[in-house]
Specification:
Shape: globular
Helix content: 25-40%
Oligomer: single chain
Radius of gyration: 12 Å
Distance between the termini: 21 Å
Mean pLDDT: 87
Order of helices and strands: HEHEEH
Number of domains: 1
Structural class: alpha+beta
Length: about 70
């Protein structure tokens, strides 16, 4: 597939940016249903549906989880 690996690379850079801004590698996002399994597979914790965001699930990754899942 043409874009294989792009998601992991983008998440890796988001973790690095979070670290450089002093957030300790923490990354949070709301995800579309079709992408949720990708984020969970690489180590994001699913906090469930957020009614304020149209029921999209909120997921969060901390530095330790990110380093393990993106290695």
């Amino acid at each position: 597939m043409r874009f294989t690996g792009c998601g992991s690379i983008l998440v890796h850079h988001a973790v690095e940016r979070s670290e450089s801004l002093g957030y300790g590698g923490l990354v949070g996002l709301h995800t579309l249903p079709g992408a949720r399994s990708f984020y969970v597979r690489i180590g994001f914790k699913d906090f469930g549906a957020d009614p304020q965001e149209g029921g999209l699930h909120y997921l969060q990754l901390n530095d330790q989880m990110g380093r393990k899942g993106l290695a």
